[in-house]
Design brief:
The complex is a heterodimer of chains A (188) and B (561). Chain A is of the alpha/beta class. Chain A is built from 5 helices and 8 strands. Chain B folds into 4 domains: 6-110, Sulfite Reductase Hemoprotein, domain 2 (Alpha-Beta Complex); 142-293, Sulfite Reductase Hemoprotein, domain 1 (2-Layer Sandwich); 307-401, Sulfite Reductase Hemoprotein, domain 2 (Alpha-Beta Complex); 416-560, Sulfite Reductase Hemoprotein, domain 1 (2-Layer Sandwich). The chains are: A alpha/beta (188), B alpha+beta (561).
Chain lengths: 188, 561
Amino acid sequence: MALLTRQLLNRGRCPIPNDNKKIWGIGGFRENLYINVERREKEDHRKLILPLTQWKQQVMQTCSATCENDQIGIFVAAGDDIEPLLPFLSVIPLLALDFPVFDDGRSYSKAVQLRTCHFYLGELRAVGDILIDQVSNMIRCGFDTLEVTHSLTQVRLAAHSGEFFTGFYQSGAKLVRSGQRRVWYTFG
Amino acid sequence: MYRYDEFDKAFVAARVAEFSDQVKRRLAGELTEDEFRPLRLRNGVYLQLHAYMLRVAIPYGTLSSRQMRKLAHIARCYDRGYGHFTTRQNIQFNWPRLVDIPEILSELADVEMHAIQTSGNCIRNITSDHFAGVAADEITDPRPYAEILRQWSSLHPEFSYLPRKFKFAIIGAQTDRAAIQLHDIGLRLNRNAVGELGFSFYIGGGQGRTPMVAKLLHEFIPVENLLHYATAIVRIYNLYGRRDNKYKARIKILVHETGFGQLREDIDVEFAALKRSERYDLTLLQADIEAINAYFCTPDLENHPNGRDTLVSLRLKDQAFDCWVDKNVTRHKHPDYAIVTISLKAIGGIPGNATAAQMDIVADLAERYSYNELRVSYHQNLVLPYVALQDLYAVYNVLVASSLASANIGQISDIIACPGLDYCSLANARSISIAQQISTRFSRPGYQEKIGEIQLNISGCINACGHHHAGHIGILGVEKKGTELYQLTLGGSAGNRCSIGEITGHGFAADEIVDAVETIIHTYLSLRIDHGEPFIDAYRRIGMMPFRQALYGTADKTAAE
C-alpha cells in the first residue's frame, strides 16, 4: 500500500485539496473516511481516493484488482468512461464522480447507469462544484454522499430537516404516483 | 383537455415555493446573477434587452378558457397589456418585474399552468399538432403521450443539466403540422403491420446557425418502450454531447460528428440495457396510459346535422365570411364541426401578439362555442378546435368586431416572426417592423389570394427563433458594420417534405428587403404553371436560378454574394 501510494503521488490529477470540504448525506454531515492521493503522506490513517487513470494503470500492472483495493475509492472525472470499472464494481468501496462545474450533468447519468444497469452497491459520492440546488437531483440519481465546499450550501444543508423532497414524477419512472415513497428507494 | 390531479398540483406548488425562495435569495444578494441564472432559466425567466421576460408553457398547445383568461389577467396586471405567443407553443410576457414573478407563477399554478423548463439546458415544453384530437387525418391523439413525456421530463434528476436545450415534438397524424423534423427528437405515432401502436423516432433536427433536418432513427418503437428509447437517446446525448462550445452542443452536432450509424449503435446498446434493468423499469403500461387518458376530458360532441346547409347559405350571402371560411376553417373529424384558426397576424400588426382584451374575447368564444378549449399553433395563431358548423358565423362576427378576423391563414401575411431587436437581447436586427411592412405591402384586396399558399418566416438573428430556415421565403436579420441587413432564403419547408432554405445571395438593407420579397413573388407569379401550383412546388420545380437572376441580375451564386 505504501509503495503504491508513493508511486501515485507523482502522477495525474485529483480534486484540489480543500480544508473547507465537508461530507454530507441524508441524515447530515459525517466524517470523511477517505483522503485524496495528494494528501496521503500527511494523513495516512484514512482510505485513499485514486484518479481512474492511475487506478487503471495499477490494475493493468497487477492484472487484478487486489484485495487491498477494497480500501481504495476511485475519482471518476466527468469525461471518463466508466467501462473499465465495470468488472471490478463489487470490490470498489467508493466512486467519487466529478462535477467540474455545477452545470456539467454527465455524472448524473453515470450515477444512474452505475446504480440501475450495473448494480453498483458501494458508496457513490458527488464531488466538485456542488450547490444546494443540485442536491436533490444528486440524491435522486443514487448518490449517497456529497463533498460540499460552497459555504452557503453547507449552511443550508446544516439547517436542513432532511425533508426537502416533496415529490417528483420519476418515482419508479412508471408514472405510478408514489405518495410518500421516495424515488431513490427504487434504486435499492 | 388534461386536468391536473392532486400530485400535479402539489408538484407545481412546490416548484413555485422553491423558485420564490431562490428569487428572495437573489434579491437579498445571497445568490450572484451567475448562480441565479440557471435557476431562473429553469423557471422560464430570461433577462432581456429592457427587462426580465417570463416564458410560460402551454403544454402541447392546449389551454382552457379559464387559463386564457388568466394569461389576459397577467398581461393586464403585471405586464403592458399584451402577450406574445411563440413558435414553441409558449407565451412570453416581456415586462414583468422580478419581484412579481413568484406571484405570477402562483397565479398560473391556480389554473394548472407553469413556466417550468421553458428555458435552460433541459428538456423543454413538449410541442404537438395544434389540431391534435380533432384532425380528420389523425391515427391517434398524440396528447396523452405528450403529457406522459411532460411528466417524465419535468425536473428529471438525470437530465436537468444537459449540454444544451432539448426539444421534443410529437404528432399522431399523416400531415406534420408540428415541424417534427426540426426538433432534437421528433415523434410520429403510427401502426405496424399487425395494427400495434408505436413511434417513429426522428433525431437531430434543429435550426439556429447549423440548420439540420432530423433523420429517421427508428421506424417503429412500441408504445411500451417510449420512455426506454427516449431515455437512451437523452442519456447518450447527456454523456457525449459537446460541452466546450455552446454553438456545437445540440444533439444534431453529436449526430453529425459521431456519425449516424455509430450513434444509433450507442443508443441501441443503452436501450437494451434499460429494457433489461429491473431496478429502473420504464415500461409504459397500458394502465398508465389509460390513467393519463382518464384525465383528458375529451368532449362528447353533440350532433348538429343541419349546420352544413346553414353554412352554405351564409357563405353565399357574405363574401368576406366565405373568404374567411376558405382560409381559416379546417375540416374536423366530426362532420358537423369545424376547426377555426384565429389569425394573430392582423395586417400591419405584430405576429403572435394578443392584447389582454383579445385573449378574453377568445376565451369567451371558446367557452361558448368550443367546449372551453383552445389551441396555440407553432405558426403563432390561436385555434378553436370544436366549433359546430352552425356556429361559425356567430364566431366570425365576434372576431370581426375584435379585429381578429384576418382571413390569411397560410397566406403571405401569416408570417412567423420572432420578437427581434425590439425586445430580444440576442437579436441583430428588427423582425417586427419588417413583418409589418410585408403584410401591409401584400394586403391590397385580391393580391394575397392571387399569390396563394406560402410561408414567410423572419428571424432577427441566427438563432432562428422565427424559423427563417423553414420558410418558403425566409428572412434573416444580420448586423454588418453597424447596420441591419436582411438575408433571404428560399425553399425551406417545415412539413412532411422538410427542407432548409437556400440563401439567395447578398443581403438587403431594411428599406430594400420588402421590394426584394416582391421581386421574388413577381418571379414566382410569372413562372408558375397555374394558380394551382403553390410557391414551394414551383420553387422545387424551377430552382433558385430564376429568382437569383431577378434579384441580382445574375444567376451565378458567387456573383450574387
